[in-house]
Records
---
Amino acid sequence: MRRTAIAAVAVLYVLHQDVWFWREARPLVFGFMPIGLFYHAAFTVASAGALWLLVTFAWPTHLEEEPGASPRRRESA
Amino acid sequence: MIPAVVVFTYLGVVLYIGIFAFRTTRQSSAEDYFLAGRSIGPTVFLLSLFGTNMTAFSILGASGHAFANGIVTFGLMASSSALIIPVCLFAIGTRLWALGKRNGFMTPVQMFRDRWECGHIGTVIFVVQAALLVPYIIIAVMGGGTVLQAITNGYVPYWLGGAIVSSVVMAYVFLGGMRGTAWVNALQTTLFLLFGTIAVFVIGSGMGGFRQAMEALLSSPATSPLLTRERVSPMYFFSYTFIPLSSIAFPHICIFCLTARNVTYFRRTIVLYPICMLLIWLPSVFLGVIANQATAVPAIEAKLEARAQLASPGTTLTPDDRARLRAQAAGDDVILRLVDGYAPLWLAALLGAAVMAAVMASDSQILALSTMFTEDVFAFYQRSSIPTGAGTRRFQDMQVLTGRVFVVIVTAVAYAIALRIPQSIFDIATQYAFAGYSSLVPLLVAALFWRHSTRWGALATTVWTATAVAGVAVIQSNIPPPPPGSSITVWSLGDLPIVTRAATGTFVWGMLPVVPMTLISALLMIVVSYATRNIAMPSDGTLKRYFAA
């Protein structure tokens, strides 16, 4: 799943370059939102999903361990 | 007058938050004043980190850019940022937090000095970071002046509005330090998350519904391109995805990453960041676009006439006339004009306060600059001259005092510059601060993930960034912008134009300068580090601390 999460983020980066709606304003989604704007709004929501995958399956758990005081830290304390 | 009263009340509230933070916390140590004692909770961390990224640029600059360029604004900056900024927080921000907690770092330069075992090269990095941060602060001062002038219908002039906003920000940063700043940012984010969507519906209703407005925009050849991206090239669109990289390299974001009590607080922030982007940017961009149909508002009609005059073929305009018309057509205050024209008075007042909240996000940058000066210059060069024991306490007090004095100096300098630079908010931000910080990202990546990087590679990257930003600034200031739609070749290879100057800025192969700047920056880090690996590799002890896993 870790690889899937990273791949999802990479795929989204590619999908950001949506040349297919470049010159089209119609259809107007909900009657007032140009399709190009709606696509990127949906892209933003999809980004939240991909990021959820990332923090769920690829979280750097080793950073959660409580770090001990280093020599540098003790010196400044 | 009611909106002005509400906005001034809001200014009073944030000032009180600064005083409250000053009274209720000790702030006797540098870590407490500059990092809130590394004790920020999860909700304030999310709201404040997001608010720190949202400045006058995102509210006023985005709607102004959308007013002139259409829906492309959302794809250029919002949706790419919604993915790239959280990924950077995930990969870089969490590691910065862990290193800061373990080693006591308060600034990125402290980490660079430790990682590459260098002293003065760290000072060079500080100088470049600080020089790039000042334009960002200026944006906020300009935004403050613009907003107060618009809200009071000109009773408060631009210069006075900027002075009032700067003074309030300076006061609560001076008093409250990071804790006061984080609380104010959390309040600000809550405000504009709440009122952005409300603004869309109220203004839409006032204009007779968005459906009719959109159809009217589509039916006019002058405005229908605003609803597509046909006016920009795919290459230009792609190059904008490099801009959000800058976020994690901004010192105020790096420093804010160090304030979380626990690294798990990043999780919620990373996932919810895109949703916050959507809630703020979609209304800003949508209202900016729809303003092109708001001809019933006299101020907006005047902007549209100025734009039409600029674009009309065969018109011969002097450079002064062109500059005047460009300033008249600028849309940085377009949201406020819409609110003024269509929202009921009570809502206009609240929305004015929300916009003011966004404008005042320069607090974090001012505090970051103060933290950097105090830690990277003052403490670094003075620490050896201060005796241990009782002197340590005195040194801590001096650090906090130095930080506070620097807050005053930075704000005053930014205000003085803001009065002299008439350029659009969006252009300044993109051409200087954002591009420069994106170009500095290889420093962070190399320090955290590449054990073979050296201090000379870091120096090469930093000097290149400074040179490239200065080069863009020279082109921007020496070559006047041509009429929209045309470009001037600054440098070419044979018949192939490489560097061009257009109405919207400087371009390299049709892309924003940020792309070659960042790529060359990364290349220099690799090449120079390899070339100096035998003379400048950090000690095994240092490498073990960074790459033990």
Note: Chain B touches chain A through 56 residues (CB under 8 Å).
---
Amino acid sequence: MVSRRLSISSNSLIVLLGPFVGFWLFFWMMPLIFGVDLSMRSDLLVEKSLKVRSVHAEVSDGAYVGFDNYRKAYRDEKFWRSLKNSIQYVLGTVLLTLPLALALAIRLIGLPRKAQGLLLFLLMIPGLAMPSVLSTLFYLFFHGREGFLNQYLILPLGLEPVNWMMDPSFIMPCMIFQSVWRWTGLVTLFFLCGLEGIPRWQLEVAKMEGLGGWSKLRILWMPGIGHLILFAAIFLTVDGFASFSGAYVLLGGSGGILDSGLLFVTYLYQVAFPGGSGRFDFPTATAMSLMVMPFLATLLYGILRIRRHRLGK
Amino acid sequence: MKKFLSVCFLSGVICLATYPFVWMFLSCFKTNREIYRPGQLLPGSFDGSSFRLLLDASYLPFMKIFSNSLLASIGQATLATLVSAGAGFCLAKYRFRGNSLIFGLAVLIILMPKQTFAVPLFEWMSWLGLRGSLWSLLLPGAVSGMGVVFFYQIFRHFPEEWIELSRMEGLSPLRTFWVIFPLVLPGVLAFFLLYFVLCFQEHLLPMLLLDDENATLPLALAKLKDSSHRIPESVGMAASTLSIVPLLLVFAMAFRKLRSALRLVSLS
């Protein structure tokens, strides 16, 4: 669709677009530039500025140390561990949430309107709850020897009850479960809205052709909401990398046993604000996020661009 | 058979999504012993002492925290809605230099959320002298890449003729925006609500940026869970219930509008 867009005077442009660009510069770009600068300094300035709380940080004091902080981060095993965990977490969430949400949306679209709305709303409840509520519920309800998971999943299969949070190999599945639980409803809502946009005549044709479930999925549903699936995948990826609350509350701020639940942002937080006697190492934490995030953003941006070319837009 | 399986699948997922919350609500009335036995749904007796303990501020100034949370989230959502609607309108309907650049910028913001550079943001806010107050949360919350893309989609499907008509009538683009703003109200409402929820749930930034007296709900909930051995579990359950019920009510009321707006946005 080529739109015949009108031109716009610069005055109107400033009023309409100015706030966005201004806020962007001031609260997104500036912290980033500040961060680049910070990541090249020694961590002495932070201690100074935290001691005199409420007084502005004296930026001039931290000596420049070049790329030392990056080197430090690069050699830090826990940093790589947290990255690996985050990637696992993201992959698990995306690969479970998307098919589940798609299946739910396809089931729901055939239902009468009233029932559909009600069921969709019920599905969305975990998405409206705070991640910390989900963590608490997980801890009290699903977890534990008498918890839901052991009682209804593990014992009926004839296995030994699992001690979920104490066993390193089960912490990550727990966190992924929690994330899937949280996002499935909202993603289903999104997909369902997309499926409803598919023209009615296509459905009728599919019915007349007598398409089976699988070919219907391939020919009818997937092309209709392919772009939404991509968008949801990217949203979940970014959110997974940025997620903090669920893991923080579930594991009480630690990385869990053997750090098997240590996520990227949780580790950044641990480096920057260590409890107890640790040093506030803001520069290294900043260096870490600068090592990861631009890279990830470029990768995802590339994927978006390629997709857009293929769709011919 | 196939039908039966599909019904089983659907009801299983719905149970998983709702049953824990029913359990949570009923757990407000339970003793610790009963809560540690998750198989039990109904409490031994209904007494609302947990709500009383919570609202009396015996452990936390809950009302203050709740209103902080509401204030911060409504503020962020309002600012972000206005800022993004203007930008999205410009990008969708007018031709100017840098149009696609700014759209790319919005996508970039989605891909690099502010949580991931929370530490530099913390430093920047201290440098500005805003750290500790609600402003340090509100102002960065006004930038939403998602919002710009959302409103771009909303306005893109708005009939071109109306814009041309308003130009012929001699209205400036700003006036045009103001005139058609009420017409996209479902979209505005939908974005407002979704962004409100995201802000309401935000944990990391309030923890870093806010002083204790400005604490928001996620912090309070984490605290209640951490110190569960001193505070009865039912108080935490009551706080959780109170944190979700308002959202459920608002979403239930606006659900139809929300869906019609999302349908528009999800068109390619």
Note: The mean pLDDT of chain B is 88.
